[in-house]
Amino acid sequence: MDLPGWQAVYEKLGGENFEIISVAQDTGGEAAAGEFYDAADATYTTLIDVHHTVSSLYNMTNVPTGVWIDEAGMIVRPNEVAYSENVEFGTIKVNGEAYVSALADWVEHGGESRFALSPTEVVLRVRPRSGDAAAADATFKLGAYFHEQGDLERANALWHQAQELQPESWNYHRQDWSFRSRDEASQNWRQKFEALGDEPYYAPLALEDAPP
């Protein structure tokens, strides 16, 4: 998440009807993710998921990704790119302001919001996990386990295998790159990004009823 921007959103919308739970997916733990929460001075709930459990359960492949969950624990909107502000970087274009407007409408109107999806609509929007993606998930988590045990050679081999099984998962690549130098990680990201061609980096937001 763009943490400082979401802190501003939380200050505006937070209260009894709204809570942000930000979960950093990082095997590096507090040492890797803590500084970003500190810099954002976040007052909403901030967690660090060293086992990537959240991205596994919700089938997330990139960040920032948001899921709306109501007070009954039901998913109201499944995975979608979640910036708090408009983003434009090369071919990456995200209407974050429209997303926040839709979120504010849901906070105000709850299940009556025009952006709250029915259970049927939620199911239709959930992308099924392929056999290769399921294998990649298990392989990646096994790599994370070996990384925790200090067996970096085996961890790197498993992470590489997971990336080959599901190359569209930027989370797998990004975690691997996070243990390399900043320059190497940046170069790897740019090479993979440029190889996308016309394929989107983020799936387009489907907020047809969003205010202009």
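the 2nd protein, sequnce then structure:
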Amino acid sequence: MSTIVIAPFSNSAIRDWPSAHFATLIDLLLDRWPERSGLIRVIGTPGQRPRVDSIVRTYPADRVTNDCGRMPWPEVVTELRTAACVVGNNSGIAHLAAFFDTPTVCIFGGSHQRLEWRPIGFNVTLLSRTIGCSPCHLDHGASCAYGLACLWEIEPGEVADAVMAAIVRGRTKQMVPREAHEGTIA
């Protein structure tokens, strides 16, 4: 059974795609990824578990699991290596999945310079919005005068499309130059 791994939180709220968008993304993935295909595992730290509960509580437990704080680090690493796709923010999880050459969709906010801080790899799709204030170099989401518009404007449908395309690329083992499938949105 294949797994899509979703890591909805980084260590800084300024880099986190909205929880409501992650919930919508899971809806879309469940519709597009047939039941026989696999499981969606949402991962994070034990402290992130209550926030992830609010994202996943309405989904069938046999398809979507909240594994925050439940897996030892070696198991997390194995999941990242073997996943059909990993979805995350600009975070260590996205960078590690990219390092393993796992199909990775990174939702990248405007707080950091993309060219300097993005995950690097042939199987990475970077989704971002460039708005007038980015990169802002802010440290906290509450500091953003624009309500994290750079993240809110990335639509769940765009992310779901990128995930499904990444899964297809991963299955066919195509090595497409990064520029040909990088999903940066200007």
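The chain has one domain: 2-181. Confidence is low (pLDDT under 50) at residues 174-186.
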